[in-house]
Write a structure and sequence with these properties.
Elements: H1 3-16, H2 25-43, H3 46-61, H4 70-88, H5 91-107, H6 115-133, H7 136-151, H8 160-178, H9 181-196, H10 205-223, H11 226-241, H12 250-268, H13 271-287, H14 295-313, H15 316-332, H16 340-358, H17 361-376, H18 385-403, H19 406-422, H20 430-448, H21 451-466, H22 475-493, H23 496-511, H24 520-538, H25 541-556, H26 565-583, H27 586-601, H28 610-628, H29 631-647, H30 655-673, H31 676-687, H32 696-700, H33 708-714, H34 717-726, H35 735-745, H36 755-775, H37 780-783, H38 786-795, H39 807-813, H40 820-837, H41 852-858, E1 861-864, H42 883-893, E2 903-906, H43 931-934, H44 942-945
Antiparallel strand pairs: 1-2
Helix pairs in contact: 1-2, 2-3, 2-4, 3-4, 4-5, 5-6, 6-7, 6-8, 7-8, 8-9, 9-10, 10-11, 10-12, 11-12, 12-13, 13-14, 14-15, 15-16, 16-17, 17-18, 18-19, 18-20, 19-20, 20-21, 21-22, 22-23, 22-24, 23-24, 24-25, 25-26, 26-27, 26-28, 27-28, 28-29, 29-30, 30-31, 31-34, 31-35, 35-36, 35-40, ...
Length: about 950
């Protein structure tokens, strides 16, 4: 039993001696009521306070109006109601306390010694009412009352420190509401004055230390002066020393000291401060048992500190614990609670972050569900409406990136637009909304290809950059994302200015990310891509070398285990292969193969980018086969290409090109081993690519087109016929053989051509096929299946010529219907085909006019049947021929008689190539069989170039 318990027992015994009507009963009732209230303030037993209120009511009844002691008893009863309000929060108790204080104040004379105490307590109750409802007039009255009380407590008065302290609290409250710095400074000045009056040993020193520290921390949050925060930490530590284990205020000192260390961590980045914040917060939570009024704040703040540590080190345990803590907060905030929406909002953010880290769809779905629930509780006009719109939009954006549903992205765009409308010019988060909306439009462009989306993304990105000048924390990321969009625009339109701007922006971003910066590898990687693109466009070796250097630097920063290592390996392998194609050095190609193999190892079966690695590796082995002639490389290319084809199911954007490349590799193997199976498949495969371009029936009216499978089945008639015709041939395939096979594989309609242009091209191809079949003693229509054969005549269309019956007439008439550019393109295709078959090096699909004759001589060949009246062009090639010369040259190269056809003839045995001369680059030839490699500029993956969306600060509990 405590001393206070003894006092209560003695007071109860004393009351027994004063029954109703006794003159001493009022004092006995009063003494017992006072001791019970004191016991409540120590033990928080509500029964003690309830009894004290009942006793004080009895005392008041014994002191009617006019009694000299009535104002004191009114004041004491007011204190009891105020205490019960602090415990239970019932507004009726606070209103009763205010009424009783006002009644007592009216009965006190201006000079009465108890007037100052009543002024002080009425002021405290008015401040409590302000904190509940936020009415400024209540706080203004509290300030006025406290000033009056202070005037009655001059220097030397025993209660002066109380008035100084309470007045300081009012000024701090007004600062919290209105943000006037003068109020904060006044609070600090008053607290310092109060602290001087409460030296070490004073019972109220702890409160002054804590409140002065809180005001200094608030000033630090405004001006970031380290001295203010350091002093705040020192004061809180002194307060904690005065609150040993068991002290009722120890949890509070632990809690607010933890907040200070967390602030210093965010300012200075010192991990020891963050660890101290976590330790102190855990200690505070242990003292806040379930049911404690401030347990929610401790749970919420500890979750924030663990989240900070997760961001620093990425430990899943920290994030998991933060989620559990916030779920506990949500459990303590039932629906309807004033902080319910805050709990939903914060928990949604944490699930979103865990999805970013672990990729669990359930977390993303939970984040979206919680975000929607929070938004429902934060309607238009709510201070958190814009931030909730922003973060819900980010969740839907992530869902789009995962599943590709347009509806998710469209909703994200709508939500971001709404958030932007609420963040007018001058709003601190306007740049975030601009940036996030730009990312969404950029992704919609990647998905749907609408130029308007790309332009909108660029416009928004530029607007965001204006609001994020040099020195802004988001300046580098905005530079990066705007640069990515400019690169996209370059890839669409080919304007050098766009790519040059992208390079300049990426360089600026790189300058802001010195060695050690977490995003430096991204800037290196993205800048390398831009230089690679510029090399592809302009062919400057310096750009290629720069791309290689940047890719190597990026790879060093993306060691084994880095999520983006495979991309850097792949891109470095790509540019090393370009270097090989440029200079023919075997070492570059060998390194490219090793890099692509490493990338493939990081993309196991099931990985979305595995087919890309297979493709790059396939092309590299094909290049090495072309250079060195090692059959194992060709076999590897075929194996890898088949594996890539398995991953490119019908409808896949790369399927047609993969089919074409596989056909070329099988054709190469046929030339080596004369295996009819390779030739059959090589000729049949390109036919199965037709459905990836355009259907014949849609483009030509009534010409039938079958599915992949039926087309392959029905096209087998051609390979079988060709097989029968070539079985007895012992010599290698002639250039005419290759022209015939290429004509077959080129029967693909370009969907960008008009109907008449498509008809013209298709007729030309069948013309070549007809002559080729006749040269082998075959009738082409007889080789075709019925469904195709029935449509051959419709190709001639308005010419009213039956292709099956009049191949010679078609041959004579059709060239005149081609335009000059079409004829030049046909000439180029035929010459390139002959050059490839003759193992002559071809750079980027361009005819080597300036060295053509010398290159042929190195192979023991000579150009024959060039029309005498057509000039030989050595620089610009044949593109500047006039229409007459182009027509003559076209007829020469398409001449039905091989003896008179423009082509190559042997001068004798070809010289041996020891590997030091030029090399055959089939992968960059402008043949339709090599489309995938010609157009290969690496998919523009968003995650590789952009940076994460901006999230608004979450509303954690404040101390």
């Amino acid at each position: 039993m405590t001393e206070l318990d003894d006092q209560i027992a003695r007071n109860r015994k004393e009351l027994e001696y004063h029954p109703p009507g006794d003159t001493g009963r009022a004092m006995a009732l009063y003494s017992l009521g006072i001791s019970l209230r004191k016991n409540f303030l120590e033990a928080y037993n509500i029964a003690d306070l309830e009894e004290a209120i009942a006793l004080h009511h009895l005392v008041l009844d014994l002191h009617p109006l006019g009694h000299s002691d009535r104002p004191d008893f009114l004041h004491d009863l007011a204190l009891c109601f105020s205490s019960r309000y602090n415990k239970q929060g019932t507004m009726a108790d606070l209103e009763e306390a205010i009424t009783l204080c006002r009644a007592a104040l009216e009965l006190y004379s201006p000079a009465y010694f108890g007037r100052a105490s009543t002024l002080n307590n009425l002021a405290n109750n008015m401040r409590r009412k302000f904190l509940k409802f936020g009415v400024n007039s209540d706080l203004d009255e509290a300030l006025s009352l406290h000033r009056s009380a202070l005037d009655l407590r001059p220097p030397g008065h025993s209660d002066r420190s109380d008035s100084l302290h309470n007045l300081a609290l009012c000024f701090r409250s007004r600062y919290d509401k209105q943000g006037t710095i003068a109020d904060l400074d006044e609070a600090i000045t008053l607290n310092r004055a109060a602290l001087e009056l409460r030296p070490v040993g004073h019972s109220g020193r702890v409160n002054i230390l804590n409140n002065l520290a809180i005001s200094l921390r608030n000033r630090f949050l405004i001006f970031s002066a380290n001295d203010d925060l350091d002093e705040a930490i020192s004061l809180h530590q002194s307060a904690l020393d005065l609150c040993p284990l068991g002290h009722s205020d120890r949890w509070h000192s632990l809690h607010i000291l933890a907040a200070c260390f967390n602030n210093r961590y965010h300012k200075l980045g010192t991990i020891v401060d963050l660890e101290e914040a976590i330790t102190l917060s855990r200690a505070a939570l242990e003292l806040c048992s379930p049911g404690h009024s401030c347990r929610v704040n401790n749970l919420s703040d500890l979750a924030v500190y663990l989240w900070d540590r997760f961001q620093q080190f990425g430990a899943n345990d920290d994030l998991d614990e933060a989620i559990v803590l916030h779920q506990s907060v949500l459990d303590l905030h039932p629906p309807g609670h004033s902080h319910w929406s805050d709990s939903l909002y914060n928990l949604a953010l944490y699930f979103s972050h865990r999805y970013d880290k672990q990729g669990t769809i359930a977390d993303l779905e939970e984040a979206i569900t919680l975000g929607r629930a929070a938004l429902a509780l934060r309607p238009v006009g709510h201070s958190g409406h814009a931030s909730t719109l922003n973060n819900l939009a980010n969740g839907l954006w992530r869902k789009f990136l995962k599943f590709g549903a347009n509806g998710d992205l469209d909703e994200a765009i709508a939500l971001h637009r709404s958030a932007l409308d609420l963040r007018l010019p001058g709003h601190s988060y306007r740049s975030d909304s601009l940036q996030n909306l730009a990312l969404c439009f950029s992704d919609r462009y990647d998905k749907q290809g609408a130029i308007a989306d790309l332009e909108e993304s660029i416009t928004l990105g530029r607007a965001a950059l204006e609001l994020r000048p040099v020195g802004h924390s988001g300046h580098a990321s905005t530079l990066n994302n705007l640069a990515d969009d400019m690169r996209r625009k370059f890839l669409k339109f080919g304007a050098n200015g766009d790519l040059n701007e992208a390079i300049a922006l990426h360089r600026s971003a790189l300058d802001l990310r010195p060695p050690g910066h977490s995003y430096r590898s991204d800037s290196l990687h993205n800048l390398a891509l831009c230089f690679s693109d510029r090399y592809d466009k302009q062919g400057a070796t310096a750009d290629l070398e720069e791309s290689i250097t940047l890719n190597r630097a990026a790879l060093e920063l993306r060691p084994v285990g880095h999520s983006d290592r495979a991309w850097t390996l792949s891109n470095l392998g790509y540019v090393m292969r370009l270097k090989f194609l440029k200079f023919g050095a075997n070492g570059g190609l060998d390194e490219a193969i090793a890099l692509h193999r490493s990338a493939l190892d990081l993309r196991p079966p099931g990985h979305s980018d595995r087919s890309e690695s297979l493709h790059h590796l396939t092309v590299c082995f094909s290049n090495r086969y072309d250079k060195q002639g090692i059959i194992a490389d060709l076999e590897e290319a075929i194996t890898l290409c088949r594996a890539a084809l398995v991953l490119c199911s019908p409808g896949h954007s790369g399927r047609a090109n993969t089919l074409s490349n596989l056909a070329v590799y099988l054709e190469d193997r046929f030339q080596q081993f004369r295996a009819n199976g390779d030739l059959n498949v090589a000729i049949a495969l390109p036919r199965s690519t037709l459905d990836h371009h355009i259907t014949f029936s849609a483009s030509l009216g009534d010409f039938p087109l079958d599915s992949d499978e039926s087309a392959l089945d029905q096209s087998n008639g051609v390979p079988e016929s060709l097989d029968r015709a070539t079985t007895g041939k012992e010599n290698p395939l002639t250039s005419e053989d290759l022209v015939g096979m290429e004509a077959f594989s080129d029967i693909i309609i370009n969907k960008n051509l008009t109907k008449e242009e498509s008809r013209s091209q298709l007729t030309t191809k069948f013309n070549v096929l007809t002559r080729y079949a006749e040269s082998m003693g075959l009738n082409l229509p007889a080789c075709l299946p019925p469904s195709c054969s029935s449509g051959v005549s419709s190709i001639s269309g308005p010419m009213d010529v039956d292709l099956r019956e009049c191949p010679t007439q078609l041959s004579n008439e059709q060239p005149t219907r081609l335009s000059k550019p079409d004829k030049i393109e046909r000439i180029k295709e035929r010459l390139l085909g002959m050059l490839r078959s003759s193992q002559v090096f071809i750079s980027h699909g361009r005819l080597p006019w300036s060295t053509l004759e010398s290159d042929l001589e190195k192979r023991g060949l000579v150009l024959v049947n060039w029309p005498a009246e057509v000039p030989r062009k050595r620089n610009k090639g044949i593109y500047d021929l006039n229409a007459e010369h182009a027509d003559k040259l076209y007829h020469a190269i398409m001449h039905p008689d091989e003896e008179h056809r423009l082509g190559f003839r042997s001068l004798g045995p070809a010289p041996v190539d020891h590997g030091t001369g030029t090399t055959h680059d089939a992968n960059l030839a402008s043949s339709s069989k090599r489309t995938l490699d010609v157009q290969d500029s690496r998919p523009l993956k968003r995650v590789k170039f952009k940076e994460p969306m901006t999230r608004d600060n979450f509303s954690g509990a404040k101390s």
